[in-house]
Design a protein that fits this description.
heterotetramer; A mainly alpha (about 425); B alpha/beta (about 160); C alpha+beta (about 375); D mainly alpha (about 160); A: about 425 residues; mainly alpha; about 65% helix; globular; B: about 160 residues; alpha/beta; Beta Polymerase, domain 2; six-stranded mixed sheet; about 25% strand
């Protein structure tokens, strides 16, 4: 959607699309039309694939090091400087291992699952605006596209769990589906709040809206971010909601039977999905490549990736600190807590947008007011829900009773009670 | 300090309640005959003065010609302990009544004794081997398990340089 | 409405499973996520120690007791030595008694740290609590190492005393640890006990009623969590526990959370005991000379201690020969498992795992 | 519509959708059938994209491949193992006849109708157009549909409520 104008010089790496635009305009001068399409598709696809592969590899190191810091250890530090070559070592090890096939399983589905799992993880990345003009496909239903593509992952994970012919895997597969059915609803409703304000479902449109309004949607829709973050964490199976691969309960859930590089693919998909969560949150709630004017000095794609990694860090932090919830608690949380809050959020958001449009108020005035209102509403609702609807933990004792002497009944006296 | 109830006191109380139980008293323990074991155990548990609701430990000893079952019973409320013994006389196919109906805690301990000593507990709800697999030949804690030639019992008869 | 007929799913939990604490196996019948039946199967770590011990002298048997509950070797040593001393009628010098108390309580801190950490792991906390608890445990193990040269299987206690006196650098380091630990424990209490997710997971799950606990021979923290104030250190004091000032933590209703509370508070009480013992530690010999050829008189003895897992008792029968005629271990890990089925049936798989974790078994001691 | 790329995509997607739909009926394993159904849904979604109906395409993936297929999988998982096969039924012959009749009718209608060709170009923003259509001229059917869904939800709650 960038307005046509003189092309920036190719060496302007604040926006990597400059070089590509140059190349394409040169190609369109000398070659046929379809060549431009093909070349742009190849360049974009390769770039995204390389980016995803590189992050998957890098995140092995990032995740292990960060979690190690949280857990008062050092993490991998033997292979290469600061253990930087550890991902290479991990991958080499995984590739050398034999890929086992369960004898009573369903071989075709079993082998397809890890490959198919990589598809959605890769496809999601196609619509993100990495920089001002750095969008591979600028779909005008981008938000819906993301939800649709990520929901397909569930079926793939189910395929993996079911075809393994393992009871742990089956339990994991059932849990994946139960989780999706519950968490898809509040997730979509939360993102709807964002779309309401931005008035578009295109991701670059939403970023442009935040850029024009000089405000992050996170400030306007804080509740939506909280709900989205929790639901997305549940959908990509990370602690505290990793019940589909709950290690202490069902060994590894749907990928119990996978070994070698097939397991490695699932592992990579998990890392890439965590990054995708960060990318979605950064785009929709934190202004994507835009950072209050700083993007004039720092390349937009760097800002974007920086934001993604900050949110990814938040995920690692959660993983390193919180225990896991039980499945019925997770379901109850989705239906009884997140869904009502998401509905309230949409109602309030729609009301605000209506007021804004009907009375034709200036954005500079209403958006800060809405931010304050929505932020206080979010805090109020969450705290109120915790106080009145949740189990009253704070009223129960959280320290043991201390007894100094054992109460011994004298030989003559009658004994009673359980003790 | 946990008081160990002497055998004479326990025996007197049991005799008062169950006159037909055959008792044999020692300084620290009472030996009851196997047929009356469950009745005596129930009495020890329910008697308000003895109140042995906590079965501390149950084990067995191979006395070469018979098996001796040892029950360490205690009352947490009164903080005392007493020792009850009984005998499984047939060394080849020993059998004793199960006290699982009296104390649920006897469940794994009797299974353990059955597994390692081979004493069958009649009335045990789930008498299967607990550590060794079904079909393991013999019961390892018996003194004649893999018996040495010449009837020598396992263990050292004397220290090496004696 | 007709009942939805579902197929029960029989799942083998273990022996190869991340949260069965070794090689424990449960044959679990599931209805969806609900547990319908649990059948325990053990013996994968059975080494027949009771038989092996009948062919070794009394002193040679001490290393076996390390390898039963390998996470608290000191208390295993202590219980066995107490039983052998009771059988042979040996008096232990006062300094040795104090050292035994110090090391038993240090071992309790190390064991409870592991128990709490692994319990949180079973709740899905992904190793972090374990790592923090290991940090404290390492300091305890450092003290063991400087005293007896071993960290895990210490083989420290001897019949009639302990094998080594404490080295010079022990006192400052132990004092520093004792000063540091209460703050750490308070930190863990704040981090773990007040965590809502943990409370949601652990409260009201795996409830063990007090009367069932007593009838099932349950002991230790599991028994105390049901509200029964029972601690052998108070009820039947051994060594010099009667000179120590400490409290027994007691739970409320016997659920998983109460077991966690009790363990957490017990660590603090252990610190109290160690501090007093370090202050009162008298000079003198650290062991009596016992004859190398120890032949206890004919008889039998049962000695018990409050090990970190519960009541650890040794039943020894002597026939006057150099080796015990019968060597029986009353292992708390095995007996605390007795009511596992009653505690878990009707709850979910996740609760089953958490409940098993909260009982804190050690397979070395269950199977022996 | 006449570009060679679009035509190739059309044929590939059509073959995928129809072929996997046939496989749904043909394979023995019910779970495989559901997976083929998902593939068929995805093929249809691709067809929508060639028609530049991107909103409908994405919703097709989201609702059919994402939600409906998952519900089917759930239903299959709740049935006993024995019922997880496409067993031989007595209805295959009537079903085949019925399907043939349906196909013939639709084919005849499609070929015989004089289709009015709209002279406006493709939508650039289908989402907002659909939204406006739903809430302006078609608001009554929309509301009726939501009432039906609410009734279904209440019915589900009533059925599963414990006495």
């Amino acid at each position: 959607m960038t307005p046509p104008g003189p092309l920036a010089p190719w060496y302007d790496f604040r926006d990597l699309s400059n070089a590509v635009e140059r190349l394409l305009s040169w190609l369109s001068d000398i070659g046929p039309d379809w060549l431009v399409y093909v070349v742009s598709a190849v360049i974009g696809g390769t770039a995204i694939f390389l980016f995803v592969a590189a992050t998957a590899v890098a995140n092995i190191w990032v995740e292990r090091r960060v979690v190690a810091r949280i857990q008062v250890r050092r993490g991998p530090n033997r292979a290469g400087p600061w253990g930087l070559l550890q991902p290479i070592a991990d991958m080499t090890k995984l590739m050398q291992k034999e890929a086992l096939l369960p004898r009573a399983g369903d071989p075709v589905v079993f082998l397809l699952a890890p490959i198919l799992a990589f598809g959605p993880a890769l496809l999601v990345w196609g619509v993100f605006p990495f920089g001002k003009g750095m969008t591979f496909v600028d779909l005008n239903v981008g938000v819906l596209y993301i939800i649709a593509v990520t929901s397909v992952t569930t079926i793939v994970l189910f395929m993996a769990g079911w075809s393994s012919n393992n009871k742990y895997s089956l339990l994991g597969a059932i849990r994946v589906i139960a989780m999706l059915l519950s968490y898809e609803v509040p997730l979509v409703l939360a993102l709807l709040g964002v779309v309401l304000f931005a008035g578009t479902m295109s991701l670059s449109g939403i970023v442009a809206w935040q850029h024009d309004m000089r405000i992050w949607l996170f400030l306007v829709q804080p509740l939506a971010f909280v709900i989205y973050f929790i639901c997305a964490t549940a959908e990509i199976n990370r602690t505290p909601t990793d019940i589909a691969e709950a290690e202490s309960e069902i060994v590894a859930g749907y990928h119990t039977e996978y070994s070698g590089i097939q397991f490695g693919l699932f592992y990579a998909v998990e890392l890439v999905n965590a990054m995708a969560l960060g990318a979605i949150a950064a785009t929709l709630f934190f202004g994507g490549w835009w950072l209050f004017g700083l993007d004039r000095w720092i390349p937009g794609w760097m800002i974007f990736i920086g934001k993604v990694y900050l949110i990814y860090f938040l995920l690692i932090w959660l993983r390193g600190t919180l225990p896991r919830l039980r499945i019925d608690q997770l379901m109850a949380f989705a239906w009884k807590f997140l869904l009502p809050l998401a509905l309230v959020n949409i109602m309030v958001g729609a009301l605000e947008v209506l007021l804004w449009v009907e009375y034709d108020l200036s954005a500079g005035l209403v958006l800060p007011v809405f931010s304050v209102v929505n932020l206080s509403l979010a805090v109020l609702l969450v705290v109120g829900w915790m106080r009145f609807m949740a189990f009253p933990f704070h009223r129960l004792p959280s320290r043991a009773r201390l007894v100094h002497d054992i109460p011994v009944v004298a030989p003559g006296a009658p004994a009673g009670g359980a003790a | 300090m946990t008081k160990l109830i002497p055998g004479s006191e326990t025996a007197a109380r049991i005799r008062a309640a169950l006159p037909d139980a055959e008792l044999e008293e020692a300084a620290d323990w009472v030996v009851v005959d196997a047929p009356h074991l469950v009745a005596v155990a129930t009495f020890l548990r329910d008697d308000p003065a003895l109140d042995c609701r906590y079965p501390t430990a149950i084990t067995a000893v191979d006395r070469l010609d018979h098996f001796e079952l040892v029950y360490y019973l205690s009352s947490l409320q009164r903080n005392h302990m007493l020792i009850l013994k009984t005998r499984a006389l047939d060394h080849e196919a020993p059998e004793a009544p199960s006290v699982v109906p009296v104390w649920y805690g006897a469940h794994p301990q009797e299974r353990e004794i059955y597994d390692l000593m081979g004493i069958r507990f009649s009335g045990h709800p789930f008498l299967k081997r607990i550590f060794l697999w079904e079909g393991f030949a013999g019961h390892p804690l018996r003194k004649d398990f893999l018996a040495l030639p010449g009837g020598q019992k396992p263990g050292l008869a004397h220290f090496p340089k004696e | 409405m007709p009942e939805l007929r579902t197929e029960p799913l029989v799942v083998n939990f273990g022996p190869q499973h991340p949260s069965t604490h070794g090689v424990f196996r449960m044959r679990v019948v599931l209805d969806g996520e609900r547990v319908v039946d649990v059948e325990m199967a053990m013996g994968y770590l059975h080494r027949s120690m009771e038989k092996l011990a009948e062919e070794r002298t009394y002193t040679q048997n001490i290393p076996f007791t390390d390898r039963m509950d390998y996470l608290s070797a000191m208390t295993g040593n202590l219980a066995y030595c107490l039983a052998a001393e009771k059988l042979a009628g040996i008096e232990v010098p006062e300094r040795a008694q104090y050292l035994r108390v110090i090391f038993a309580e240090l071992q309790r801190i190390a064991n409870h740290g592991m128990a709490i950490g692994i319990f949180l792991n079973d709740c899905g906390a992904w190793q972090t609590p374990v790592m923090y608890m290991l940090r404290e445990r390492e300091k305890v193990l450092d003290l063991f190492e400087m005293t007896c040269g071993a960290r895990l299987t210490t083989n420290y206690m001897r019949i009639g005393g302990v094998s080594f006196d404490i080295p010079e650098e022990f006192m400052p380091q132990a004092t520093a640890l004792v000063e540091e630990l209460p703050d750490r424990i308070a930190e863990y209490e704040g981090l773990l006990l007040e965590n809502e997710i943990l409370q949601a997971r652990a409260r009201d799950t795996g409830i063990l009623p007090a009367d069932l606990a007593i009838a099932s021979s349950v002991s230790g923290p599991v028994l105390r969590s049901t509200g029964v104030a029972w601690d052998i250190r108070k009820a039947d004091p051994y060594c010099v526990y009667d000179r120590m000032e400490f409290d027994i933590p007691v739970g409320y209703q016997g659920d998983n959370y109460d077991r966690l509370l009790v363990r957490m508070e017990e660590m603090r009480q252990s610190v109290r005991i160690i501090r007093q013992a370090l202050e009162q530690l008298p000079p003198g010999p650290f062991k009596t000379d016992i004859p190398l050829a120890l032949r206890p008189p004919v008889g039998e003895a049962y000695a018990r201690i409050e090990s970190p897992k519960g009541e650890l008792g040794f039943y020894l029968v002597s026939d006057g020969s150099p080796t015990p005629y019968r060597f029986h271990v009353r292992s708390p890990s095995l007996l605390n498992l007795t009511p596992l089925k009653e505690m878990t049936v009707g709850q979910t798989v996740a609760d089953l795992v958490v409940t098993l974790g909260s009982i804190d078994i050690n397979l070395g001691e269950v199977d022996r | 519509m006449d570009e060679p790329g679009v035509v190739a995509a059309f044929w590939v997607l059509t073959v995928t959708a129809v072929g996997s739909a046939v496989m749904v009926a043909a394979v023995r394993n019910l779970l495989h059938a559901v997976l083929f159904l998902v593939l068929s849904f995805v093929g249809v979604a691709g067809l929508y994209i060639t028609l530049s109906a991107d909103f409908v395409a994405v919703v097709q993936v989201l609702i059919y491949a994402g939600a409906i297929a998952v519900l089917m999988l759930f239903a299959i998982m709740l049935t006993p193992r024995a019922a997880r096969d496409n067993a031989d039924g007595i209805f295959w012959a009537p079903a085949l006849v019925l399907a043939g009749l349906m196909a013939t009718t639709i084919g005849l209608i499609a070929t015989r109708t004089e289709w009015a060709v709209s002279d406006r170009g493709p939508f650039s923003q289908t989402a907002s157009a659909i939204g406006e259509a739903l809430l302006d001229p078609f608001v009554l059917p929309f509301e009726v549909a939501s009432v039906v869904l609410v009734a279904a939800m209440i019915g589900a709650i009533v059925i599963v409520r414990e006495e």
